[in-house]
Amino acid sequence: MAATEELIRVAVEAGTPLLLATLGEIYAERSGVLNLGVEGMMLMGAATGFMVTFVTHNPLLGVVAAAVVGVLLSLVHAFVSITLRANQVVSGLALTMIGLGLSSLIARKFVGLPLPVRIPTIPIPGLSQIPIIGPGFFNHDPLVYFSYACVAILWYVLYKTKMGAAIRAVGENPAAADAMGVNVFLVRYLCVALGGGLAGIAGAYLSLVYAPMWIENMTAGRGWIAIALVVFALWDPLRAMIGAYLFGGLEAAQFTLQARGIDPSLLGMLPYIATIIVLLIGVKETLRKRIGAPAALCKPYYREERTL
Amino acid sequence: MPSWIKLVRRADVTRTTVIAVTAASFIFAFLLASIIFFWQGINPVAAYHDIFISAFGSLRGLYFTTLKAIPLLLCAVGLILVFKANVWNIGAEGQLLLGAVAAGWVALYALPNAPSFVVIPVMFILGAVAGAAWAAIPGFLKGKFNVNEIIVTLMMNYIAYKIVEYLIYGPWRGAGSWGYPITDEFPETAQLPLIPGTSIHYPTLVLAILSSLAMYFLLSRTKFGFEVKAVGYNVEAARYAGISFFKVCFVTMLISGALAGIAGVGEVAGLHHRLIYPWSISSGYGFSAIIVAWLARLHPIAAIFMSFLLGGLFVGGYAIQVSMGLSYSVIHLFNGLILICLIASEILLNYQIVLPRGELKWQRLKS
Amino acid sequence: MLKLKLIEKEKSPKIEIGKARLLVEMRNIVKKFYRVVANDGISLSIYPGQIHALLGENGAGKSTLMNILYGVYRPDEGEIYVSGRKVSIKSPKDAMRLGIGMVHQHPRLVEALSVAENISLSLTDVGVFASPRVIKPRIMELARKYGMKVNPDAKIWQLSYSERQRVELLRVLMQNAKVLILDEPTTMLTSSEKKELFSMLRKMASEGKAVIFITHKLEEALSVSDIITVLRKGRVAAQVAPEEVTVEELARLMLGYEMISTVKREPHRYDGVVLKVENLHVLGDAGVPMVKGVSFEVRQGEIFTICGVAGNGQRELVEAITGLRKVARGKVFFLGRDVTNTSPRLLADMGVAHIPEDRIHVGIVPDMSVAENLALKKYRSPEFSTRFTVMYDKIYEWARSLIKQYSIIAPSEKIPAKHLSGGNIQRLILAREFSGEPRLMVAVNPTYGLDVAATNFILSKLLEAKKRGVAVLMISEDLEQALKVSDKIAVMYEGQLKGIFPVEEADIREIELMMVGVK
To answer: CA-to-CA distance for C503 and C484, rounded, in angstroms?
Structure first.
């Protein structure tokens, strides 16, 4: 029993950065913008979050700073791919490179230092007493609860409000959305910025809670896994939760297996192999359920052009 | 786009415009980097001086630059082909590592006692095969099931890292390595010949330049090149014309994987002479090759020059790592900035930016 | 052979021009698209309570002008006044704020969203975080007022064309538009649907709204409008009241020359069966059956046209015949050979040519040169290639001769095909497809969106081919044209052929009813 609780707890903890980043990317892609810079934004978030917390001893300030940096970085992608209509794939790759290089540059003096303050674990009264799932889900730090709230809010907004309809419209058929008076550029900028902010917070979670310290390139591909999870989630915030905790569980299982003497390098491949499998499942599901990627994904929108 | 700016689509772009815009975006990237350096308390002028002098300022620097340009060019030539087909191979890094692993296996285990003229060709062939095989997986998944090749190739990179790590920590750890995670040194028969007085392994250099010439021919003259262009520009029309997407996607991936594999052979058999940490074998050539391909505007011959330019940046990156105590990752900052400035500048190639008032004045002058 | 049929007109109380308050005035509008002048100093006055027809050929500048009024395009020169005030309309949102609404020819709705969601997007009084469901009662009320049937929860992709059009109309009405712009609203409607639409428009005009009706159909302009503005080549050719002109006069104003039909149907002389389709079943993109048991034959020298409203399985049928889509059940025979599920390349080599519906996205590779596009299916033939290489010099030479033969206007065979105009792209495709000396030509809406000259050219080439003994399978939404050139006509509705007749026996009324599934 205790083992199950522990497994859930670790899965949620390891899955939270993936969940936050995936949620953000879902919004960006729903609006028609593929942002492959998640890894870079997470790294900048992790570095900034760590440095600000280290200096101010205030983790909340660290998280906010990480979010701001994530937003700023994502706006570079937004400007290049939405306003300048450049190739979204290449722009996202460039963003990842910038994030990797810049984070290692600005945080070079913080590598390996211990974090002076910790984000406290706050069990939720009542809920954390529920057997099995209580300790697994409701005995965490505030960022985990924040991610739960994000899932609920982002799901509600996407499917139940006019805002959500506008986002989906912009991602499916920007010309129609434009004709209906939706500001395509504004919606896309906002969604990309939201994605950046959440990726930044996801990074801060790694350096403030999960690790907690700063090492160069500490995301180790989690940004890319998040992008794969978007496909697995079929662009649905609720399903993103399942995918993220599945991967969190895998990470937890890794520690157990390593203790049993299996080679850590071989175990280290697991999440990456799983990502490929998850992508395959996602693609098959897309076909079966007939839910595709947003139709205008990766296509820059502009008005003044006449089609022949 | 602010309302006072108007974009007018250009009909044709002259080569001079392309070169000017590319150079301008390169310079702009360095300006941005200097702002960041300045903010970080690093003197950008000193940094660029170090970079330039170390890469291009001496014969020795040029040797090192050439050494870096070899794997960059090989990977970039392959990427030019897949990018032309609008397939996104971001996994040259992993394919390169698999080529290195194949070379290691040939040199240390399969043919440790064979003469050079046998070992070296076998290493190159098996290296190419291994790289191609590594690229075949994402190529197949993309071609058959339309699985996002960007993510799969990236994941394959991480898996390749782990494979090399596993080998050097585990079964292939050298007897004479003092416990370090490296293999034994390759026998001399499996070490590539060098240009005397330098450390340039010329067989790989020759292969790289030949590959770029061959790619030019492939793209501009052959039936397969025609098909690649058709698929890359308009996959629907290509399908309608009876061109198989699967074939183009799979074969371009194989070729690009093979070229990256050859680069991997060159790195371990020509330079390191053993398998070492994966990030020391490659130091990001597979990623930087994307920039080479883009700087060359997907032209295989232009890639030769661009790989030297980026190779110089690598050498400079090492130099400032030593002289200024910066992490090697800073090179990625340059890479990213160059890349983003480059694609941002593309709007200048496709469109003419017209300021309405300026246009009126100009018209008045004309009339 | 087709007479113009005037649709009975419900007369509105006449409003004297000049007495009523001017609602919208456009002055000297100029708009250029990359050296093409679409609007060349157009002025237009719109009065409330009137249906104003904007008549012109394709490319006359009607849609551009209205897109400027609706804020989609910004004019290069000129001014717009609404209710006497000078305005600058920067986006559709601005237009809506000024009470200008537009119903597009292809309804601009998001297929994946519901009716209520689509409509809510353009309503400023629905809050950003409010649920789109709150407007359901308002939709129902308005629909009742104009006698429309609507389900606010239905997703757009589930609706037929005329239902989608109604949704757009509702959307515009719910924004309290004073000016309604309808862009070619009747193109895909049956005659009974047209009548319904016209009576709705009358009702709206009688409530004091101004209706602008863009069309290239003379008889509609004459029958429904209070005033007609004729555009030609980006300029106003005339402004007339419908009582003052005849169809012939109007045609001359619109075209600038007498309308002569150069296309004549030849009596058919056909022999052997070229294409035989037997009980064909094909699935659509969403995995649902789109073609359900279709059988027919096309003979040598015969033009066989399948008419129908778009989306009834025509696309899937054509793709199955040309090898682009898998056949689920049934057989396709070409010259007696079973070619079910054969690759498009083999079929093309055997002599199946295909003029696709979507010229730009399927028919050509816009970034490749005109010559390469002409050789798109021939680059690997022994004529133009060795074992591995393509002989570009030979392709260029051959392309130059085709450009001349098909009068494609292109400065050079080496420029990218994307720089050609729509009509020239269609000529390029036609040249390529006929250069393979096909036995079967599958042509999907081959003249859609082309001007009169290009249409006549394309049709004459198809008739020439027929004379040479080519079997032509045409898919068309243009029933009048189909009646002019075909030998046999079939109607496709919901994946099935509703009857095949020789053209002599075809009755336009009956076919129209079949197209909407009434018969």
So the answer is: 9
